[in-house]
Amino acid sequence: xxxxxxxxxxxxxxxxxxxxxxxxxxxxxxxxxxxxxxxxxxxxxxxxxxxxxxxxxxxxxxxxxxxxxxxxxxxxxxxxxxxxxxxxxxxxxxxxxxxxxxxxxxxxxxxxxxxxxxxxxxxxxxxxxxxxxxxxxxxxxxxxxxxxxxxxxxxxxxxxxxxxxxxxxxxxxxxxxxxxxxxxxxxxxxxxxxxxxxxxxxxxxxxxxxxxxxxxxxxxxxxxxxxxxxxxxxxxxxxxxxxxxxxxxxxxxxxxxxxxxxxxxxxxxxxxxxxxxxxxxxxxxxxxxxxxxxxxxxxxxxxxxxxxxxxxxxxxxxxxxxxxxxxxxxxxxxxxxxxxxxxxxxxxxxxxxxxxxxxxxxxxxxxxxxxxxxxxxxxxxxxxxxxxxxxxxxxxxxxxxxxxxxxxxxxxxxxxxxxxxxxxxxxxxxxxxxxxxxxxxxxxxxxxxxxxxxxxxxxxxxxxxxxxxxxxxxxxxxxxxxxxxxxxxxxxxxxxxxxxxxxxxxxxxxxxxxxxxxxxxxxxxxxxxxxxxxxxxxxxxxxxxxxxxxxxxxxxxxxxxxxxxxxxxxxxxxxxxxxxxxxxxxxxxxxxxxxxxxxxxxxxxxxxxxxxxxxxxxxxxxxxxxxxxxxxxxxxxxxxxxxxx
Length: 645
Prior knowledge:
By secondary structure, the chain is an alpha/beta fold.
């Protein structure tokens, strides 16, 4: 497997060392401040919510990693040997190259076309290069490159100026021009962006797969980045390419992909000049129940992918061929805002296309690729479960859970980035916080876009589309998006609130208290007697009565009520927290109760969880656990004794 370009952008050693020190410091603080109570039995709902979802998500991710390894280590070497053997006997009769540039810097333009012409000369196949450009200076740059390469006879250059309404129309014009030239059978088309530099051997080592596999409709290659920006930006791009490499390799086992990347992809020319292919590239649109029919502004690589998927053509990822992109954030001084803008556009393209691809079913793409599309829709919600649960339990249960979650992040993301590094061939400690940022903030953006995916914007070209012309309709659509998004997340939040125990549904005791209070009952002793007796005689056999927090008063009337019906409960448990429930007893009730070691009750006695107290009834016993007992005189009985006979 060939090595990645030596000039790809990575973080400096100073940044890596600083990140290491920060991670070690955070780890020491977390371990030092992590209290033992986090691992108590009462924390099981927290660990179930985090652990269960995490196990599901990371088991799926592990499946992708195993498939990726299988493809790169087992399947692809055989495919590479077949492609190399086919290249020795045949080449395509013609090659067409579609290169779209929009306001690319002159220096970058020169490097891109210089590398492209070098590849075309080395490949030696009759080629027509369509340069879709936006400025006259681009012609001067390309002319300079042609001068340097001696104007090769087998390379013909055609210039097509863009209208400035997006990449789709520019691509469609080029595809129509290719169609008019009637490509020979077996001809190929390379579609690439104007900021992509082809590495030596790109054409030779990628296009040979078409000769080896007649059923192959398109392919794409590995990517690297030459980044203008700080170390965080450099590693953000390299991490994304590492994640892309893993997923692309995994899906290539099924001979399908989830996108044919616009940076560099190759197609059979006879497919790319089909009228419905060109129309889909230029006028791809969707009908939505809330937004109506609207055209796609960007995402041409998703449109070409969907056409091939729908028509049953195979796709392949070539991991040992790299193309290098000259990458720069829209505003290099604002990392968060710029990455948000890019991810919102990427995820919008994904969500606008995935529904119709899922609707095709598993048959045209295979079960694994189909489920990968479904998983994209699920993961944007399941990813939010962890941060939401941690926020809930930190605010309403114990702040110390935050330390446990931070430890979970360092462990899981550390393992994930090590696997990515093993396949990518390099590692950066910045990947640990960046992968968490991509996952969580990316999930938030996906849910946001999923309710507003008609809103489209292309920062570089300064154009937007998808919304109605009527400002009133725009406001109405946006308000409805806010409402539906809020409702969907609110439903998730409600389920998590119940699951974590932050908000518990009322039990029998609470319902009995509420009913008696609603009926206007005022005597606290009588109410406590009624509640306890009602719940103790109606719970399932062998069940328990759970007391609310605070103080309840009971007297001999409780014993009378319990004697009237069979007692089904075996225990009376206090509320969460140590001895958070108190029973104030009259002496007559206290005589029936023994303390933790069988001794008579003192004025105040605690019944801890590990050694409860015992209430002896006529025919059975009730165990009191995690309850404080306080013996107080009964004012009613005292009044009777004072009055005399």
